[in-house]
Amino acid sequence: MKTYTIWYRKEPTYWFDRGLKVEDVYSACFRVGQIQAACLDEVFQNQQAEVWNREEERKMTEIVKRWGLRDASMSVGDIAEVDGKFYQVALSCWKQMD
């Protein structure tokens, strides 16, 4: 298992953003928190509202309200960071960011 830092877009595009650079993540995204997962696909699955327990749901509801987000589930365009590398959710896979 690895520790992944989760970043959600401040203004969701619901599309893979080829122009977004690693240095832009800190200004273009909210740091949602960290989770333990075996791989990126497990990160995405675990960041879907339908699999959360009550505590996770409460935490994500607070984040949505605090930041004015439209959705609490991870979506295309959101980012996971692991081992100093950033990966953005694309339409059917993950893309490593430059």
Residue-averaged pLDDT: 87
Per DSSP, the total helix count is 3
Q: Which structural class do you get from the secondary structure elements?
A: alpha+beta
The spatial strand order of the largest sheet comes to: 2-1-3-4-5
Keywords:
alpha+beta; 5-stranded antiparallel β-sheet; 3 helices; 98 residues
Structure, described:
The chain contains 3 helices and 5 strands. It has about 100 residues and is α+β, with helices and mostly antiparallel strands. It has a 5-stranded antiparallel beta sheet. A hairpin with a 4-residue loop joins strand 4 (about 85-90) and strand 5. The radius of gyration is 12 Å and the shape is globular. The relative contact order is 0.28.
Summed up:
The chain is of the alpha+beta class and 98 residues long.
Outline the fold blueprint.
Blueprint lengths: L1 E8 L15 H4 E9 L2 H7 L7 H14 L11 E4 L2 E5 L4 E3 L2
Antiparallel strand pairs: 1-2, 1-3, 3-4, 4-5
